[in-house]
Amino acid sequence: MKAIKVTAAVILKNGKVFIAQRSKNDDLSGKWEFPGGKIEASETAQACLKRELLEEFGIETKILDYLGDSQFDYGNKQIHLLAYFVEHLSGEFILQVHQNYKWIHPEELDFIDWAPADIVLAKKLKQKLTKE
Ligand SMILES: Nc1nc2c([nH]c(=O)n2[C@H]2C[C@H](O)[C@@H](COP(=O)(O)OP(=O)(O)OP(=O)(O)O)O2)c(=O)[nH]1
C-alpha cells in the first residue's frame, strides 16, 4: 500500500505547543493531532502546511525547520506524517474543522490522547523542548 503524505504543524508560542482535536465526523474522531493535511499533487510540504493552516484556522504562518516524520499503518491506509515547526504570524485561531484546540506545556506531551501516528513525533518534540 502506498503511504499518504500528510503534513503536521508544531506551533510554539510562549513556551506552549498548539494541538487540535479531530471532529466527531472525522477519522480518528476525538484524537489530538498536530494540525495539517494531505499534500496535494505538485505541492511542497511547506505550501501544503501554509494552505491547511489558513483553511483550518484562518491563520497566516511561516514554515520553519523540519522536526521529523512518522509512518503509521491504520490498516485501511498508511500515513507518512511530516512535521515542521511553524511560526504564527497573524490571525485569530478560528476552528473550521476541529472540535477543540489547546496550548499545552511540553511536559504534557506524553499524556495526550494522540492520533497514533503522532505519538513518536510528540516524544521527539518533548525531548527537543525539555533537554536544554
Ligand atoms: N493533519 C493531520 N493528520 C493526521 C495526523 N495524524 C494522523 O494520523 N493523521 C491522519 C488523519 C487522516 O487520516 C490523515 C490526514 O487527513 P486530514 O483530514 O487531516 O487531511 P485533509 O484535510 O487533507 O483531508 P480531507 O479531509 O480533505 O480528505 O492523516 C496529524 O497530526 N495531522
Automatic annotation (TrEMBL):
InterPro entries according to UniProt: MutT-like, Nudix_hydrolase, NUDIX_hydrolase-like_dom_sf, NUDIX_hydrolase_CS, NUDIX_hydrolase_dom
EC number of this enzyme: 3.6.1.55
Nudix hydrolase domain ranges (all copies): 2-127
A Pfam family assignment: NUDIX
PROSITE patterns the record matches: NUDIX, NUDIX_BOX
Residues in coiled coil: none
Keyword DNA repair listed: yes
MF terms in GO: 8-oxo-7,8-dihydrodeoxyguanosine triphosphate pyrophosphatase activity; 8-oxo-7,8-dihydroguanosine triphosphate pyrophosphatase activity; 8-oxo-dGDP phosphatase activity; 8-oxo-GDP phosphatase activity; metal ion binding
Organism expressing this protein natively: Labilibaculum filiforme
Family: Belongs to the Nudix hydrolase family.
Stated name of the protein: 8-oxo-dGTP diphosphatase
GO BP annotations, alphabetical order: DNA repair; DNA replication
Cofactor dependency: Mg(2+)
Keyword DNA repair: yes
Reactions catalysed: 8-oxo-dGTP + H2O = 8-oxo-dGMP + diphosphate + H(+); 8-oxo-GTP + H2O = 8-oxo-GMP + diphosphate + H(+)
Entry keywords, A to Z: DNA damage, DNA repair, DNA replication, Hydrolase, Magnesium, Metal-binding, Mutator protein
